[in-house]
Amino acid sequence: xxxxxxxxxxxxxxxxxxxxxxxxxxxxxxxxxxxxxxxxxxxxxxxxxxxxxxxxxxxxxxxxxxxxxxxxxxxxxxxxxxxxxxxxxxxxxxxxxxxxxxxxxxxxxxxxxxxxxxxxxxxxxxxxxxxxxxxxxxxxxxxxxxxxxxxxxxxxxxxxxxxxxxxxxxxxxxxxxxxxxxxxxxxxxxxxxxxxxxxxxxxxxxxxxxxxxxxxxxxxxxxxxxxxxxxxxxxxxxxxxxxxxxxxxxxxxxxxxxxxxxxxxxxxxxxxxxxxxxxxxxxxxxxxxxx
Length: 291
Prior knowledge:
single chain, 291 residues, alpha+beta, five-stranded antiparallel beta sheet, 20% helix, globular
């Protein structure tokens, strides 16, 4: 793997754990996966010359919203059974290599070292697609995130994150939990930067529309929300004044919601020249949400 700053490598390893890639594996583009591969559509619209890419007004531009509606319609055509039955990992490898066969040593380094932009994630029932935005936060991987729900012979598409951006190279992870008859979908993101954070989003499928809607799992003051965030540590917990083996945002374990979990907060108090003191806060499930 190409040597990178510790922050980038840490975020990359987090992504690989979500993607199901294990160190030592030699990724292979299988013939069946290559045949099932579908090119992902491009989100395209004319940028407003009066706005910079960091202006949030970009998000509400009428031509952008029209382009997103068309993009959703194009994703709803992803109904091919072979595409859904082929693993995301196999599709991504073939999208990178463009032909059947194992990655060479150089290709493996490129693929696992940050030179391939992962746009597809999920499983055989739910998939997310990252659509780079041509006009918003272009220097920080500005994009929109869409969730595809396969139900029978149809695909129902929802825009779940509008105007996402990050300094990290690898943006999103996917997991899910089953609670009774309900599936709760987790989308994990990292910010990158000098003081990186992790933000996790949660969704469920509306039984009537079959589209994703926010799942408000967390109590925030006097309201509930589907989003939770934590400061991110880039070393051993003890280096930050935390108890050994501390982990943040362990909300889903073996596809079940945890009874409790921790978030980390940076106090910005110096412990040494390299680390600042963090504290951890516990959230507990009360039967309806975490508080």
